[in-house]
Known about the structure:
The complex is a heterodimer. Chain A is mostly beta strands. Chain A is built from no helices and 11 strands. Chain A has strands at 4-7, 10-13, 18-25, 31-37, 44-50, 53-57, 64-70, 73-79, 87-94, 104-105, 109-113. In chain A, the strands form 2 sheets. In chain A, strands 2, 4, 5, 6, 9, 10 and 11 form a 7-stranded mixed beta sheet that branches. A 4-stranded antiparallel beta sheet of chain A has the order 1-3-8-7, with no helix packed on it. By secondary structure, chain B is mostly beta strands. Chain B contains no helices and 11 strands. Chain B has strands at 4-7, 10-14, 19-25, 29-37, 43-49, 52-56, 59-64, 69-74, 83-91, 98-100, 104-109. At the A-B interface, β5, β9 and β10 of A face β4, β5 and β9 of B.
Amino acid sequence: DTEVTQTPKHLVMGMTNKKSLKCEQHMGHRAMYWYKQKAKKPPELMFVYSYEKLSINESVPSRFSPECPNSSLLNLHLHALQPEDSALYLCASSQDSRQGNEAFFGQGTRLTVV
Amino acid sequence: KNEVEQSPQNLTAQEGEFITINCSYSVGISALHWLQQHPGGGIVSLFMLSSGKKKHGRLIATINIQEKHSSLHITASHPRDSAVYICAVSYIQGAQKLVFGQGTRLTINP
């Protein structure tokens, strides 16, 4: 199993809603990542978890709250988002966070904030 | 100036043509990744290189560490190869992060 599975595939939420994005992998990877991608732009790193601990937060606003309940799961909790947060949110994993490990990406969640 | 530069930004070709996409980077890296993204989102890892050359089916990736340059080649291109191809590097410092190029949008016409 070399898949990273993200749910839901699409999400529309209002600015007052609370929702969560989920990411799951069963490759035994110990590094997991959240990226945000706007249309026709490359992905931008948001968070890195290494061995279930947050190791990088790229100055992401607090309305995005990551959580890593175990080594297979990564969540992104969303609250009070703005329309400009509409984007494709990609999860990725790698064996660990050391140099040069291959990254495996999920299909993404396309988020629309209305 | 982006740390990872790709060229061309857009490429349209006819089915069967040989395709080359280039990637240049500025400082020492631990690995370079070629990724493919189809419309609708998901990213697929095609290659991870730290030296030399790799081949998978019709795809070939090369890297020249001294020149800080990599190329992705597609032989006998097919309309299903139409996608955005992204070069990304992980630096020796800050190895957890991938730094992405802007991508090359490839369209193969039948």
